[in-house]
Structures are given as C-alpha cells and as structure tokens.
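worker-03 picked up job from queue 'complexes'. Input manifest follows; two sequence lines, order preserved.
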Amino acid sequence: MTADPSLLVLASLSAGDKHGYAMMDDIEEFTGVRLGPGTLYGAITRLEERGWIRPVASLDRRKPYAITAAGVAQLKEEIGALERLVKSTSRRLKQA
Amino acid sequence: MRRLIELLSELYPKWWRERYGPEFDALIEDERATARVALNVLSGAFWMRMRTLLGGSPRDSRILGTLTKNWWLLALSGGIQAIISALYLIMQSEPAPLSFHAWNSMLVVLGRLGLTAGACVIMAALLASRNGKCWLLVLNGSALVVLGVIELGLTRFGVRFWTVAMLVILMAASTGVLELRMAQMLRKKGRYPGTWILSLTSAISVGFVLPFLALALRWIKIEPGSHTDLLWLGVYFAFSAVSMFTSALRLHTAPALS
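worker-03 finished. Artifact:
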C-alpha cells in the first residue's frame, strides 16, 4: 500500500498520542509499510507547521504527539475523499 | 552503520536540529541500523535543506511576520522613491542646463529623500522584529541611506557614478532576492493569489543589475551633457517604487502571517 505519510501519521494519532517509534510500529501494523525515520519526521514537521498535530509535554527525549481538532477535521476530509474514490472506482470496475 | 546514520542526521538544517534533533536521535537509536534507514535519513536531510532554501524555515516565517507588521513603512518608502524618480527624470529632461545653485538644491532634496526612504526600509526590517530581522532589507535600506549621504555631499567629495551604480546594483539585487523568497514563502504558507507579481518584480529587479553594471564599467558610454545616468536612475527608482508598493500590498493582504 502506498499513501501520503502525513495521512498515515494523522491516522495513527487518531487512535491516541504516540512518539515517533510507536507511530512507525503502528503504521506498519495497519499498512504493512514501515516508514523510515526521515520520511516520518518530514511528515511530522509539515503537520506541526500546519497545526494538525502538537507535541505533548514529556520528560523523555521520545516526544509524543497528539492530533489537534484541525488535524481531525483534515483527516475526516481526506478519508471522505478516499471513500468517494473507492466508491466510484468500485462502480467503474463493476461496469467494466 | 549506526555511526553513519548518526552522522547523516547531522546534515539536517540547524533550525530543524534545534527543534527535532533530540527526539530524532532517540528514534534512530531505537530503530534497526540498516542501509535503507541510512538512505532514508540522507534523503530526509536533503529535502529538509531544499525546503529551507526555498523559504520554509520558521525563521523565514518570522521575517515575513515582521514585514507584514511593517508593510506601511515599505509603502511609505515606495512613495518617497516615486518622488526621487520624478526628480531624476525632471533633472535629465531639462532642456537648458540647470544652474549650479538649482542643481545643488535638487541634490540636497534628493539626498534627504534618499535618507528618509532608506530609514523607512531599515525600520521595516527591524521594527518589532523579535527573531525575524530581515537583513536583506537592511542591506537595501543602508545602500539607499549611503546614496542619500553621497547626494548631500556629492559636490564636496566628487563621488564618481561608479559608486552610485554599485549602490543601485546592491539595492536591485537585494530587492530581487527578497521578493523571490517572499513569493516562495507566501506560496508555501497558503494559496495567496498574485504571488506571481512578486516573482515578476523580483526578476525585473535583478535585471536592473546588468544596465547599471554596464554603466559602471562604461560599456554604456555616458556622453557629456546627455544625463543618461540620471535617466537610468529615474527609471530604476520608478520601478523600485512600484516594487515596494507591490510588496507592501502583498504583505498587507496576507493576514495569516501577521
């Protein structure tokens, strides 16, 4: 499965706060793909700049992140678009 | 391999290392050290550097925040530069040579206007800036201030046009680079329409370097009494006024950055 790493990070955080390594494990579990550290942190940087995720206070170096309300809205929008794509493609495949 | 990955992670930009460095290092320690991970860290560092180069660092955001707050100073400087342009064009179009006294008075006015316009530009770059001082704009304003000082004392020090041309080149190049970065940053921040105008004025601004270099190196000859130098200065300041107004209005209509 190939998908935008930002979407995968949002999807992972929608189930609860996680630090980088836990996100990599979680994403691997539900997609079968293990993101590299560079890819994961590229996505985290973009998402934090857009205000879709935020760091959670922690004494550990492994900083957890949480999805924000804006992030949840964005995730819903993207899932909606994916659902429409799946529906229309399934219909076309049936007609073919 | 782990040591190599740690070294590769140092290739990330400084601002990024300061923000994400410790947690990224912790993640690398936890992850298996393979060639695939090393390659992924290398490509991540490369893209983050590219992003920074194209105006994606938090510092660039802070600089744009400063300019957004001080947009009116840029507009004011643009207005003064329009007057400077008009004076140069009047001086070069006078059919009869101006008297020494009239010439001197014009230079004093130009000098004062240059000082004021330059001060406005410097203030726009530094006022309420916190960590987002715009040094390119400080350079631009300083060149304008020096030009004003030269004009105030030109008859006394006998400064050559070469010096004036070099100052204009400095102003044109700094404006060009700044506007290009502003356009890139605004595009990254969201869908602000009209950033192409900034890219266009940036290209024209950099384009002014060539004729002034040609004038400075005497590839374009200035015939005695022709006032070609004044004509070019008038044209440059007219463009610079438009460019300052464009930047000011673009920044003023980007409320998300303020």
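worker-03 released lock.
The CA atoms of residues 192 and 253 of chain B lie 9 Å apart.
The interface with chain A takes residues 16, 20, 22-28, 30-31, 36-37, 39-45, 47-48 of chain B (CB under 8 Å).
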